[in-house]
Design goal:
mainly alpha, extended, single chain, 0% strand, 4 helices
Length: 88
């Protein structure tokens, strides 16, 4: 290892940016967070994804309503992953 490293051209943040998403910090009540974590575990999805869907539904977005109407199944997830991997 070197004694000194040059970080003058270094940048903070994710190595691969996530298009269409922004990382934030948010304070939620413990009972709300526990509710989403429990529901997410039962449905096999991420709790942050569920919170996003609930927020989208509350503002009237079509994507949020579609996601909230039916749970994500393994078959649907496989289909989505195949489509995304072909694009990448």
């Amino acid at each position: 290892m070197r004694k000194e490293y040059d970080f003058s051209k270094g940048r903070r943040g994710a190595v691969i940016p996530s298009n269409g998403k922004t990382r934030i910090t948010i304070m939620l009540d413990d009972d709300i967070l526990e509710h989403f974590r429990t529901q997410a575990e039962a449905q096999g999805v991420g709790y942050q994804t569920m919170i996003n869907a609930a927020l989208r539904e509350s503002v009237g977005g079509a994507k949020g309503r579609a996601a909230a109407d039916k749970p994500l199944t393994a078959a649907t997830l496989r289909k989505i992953l195949r489509e995304e991997l072909q694009v990448a």
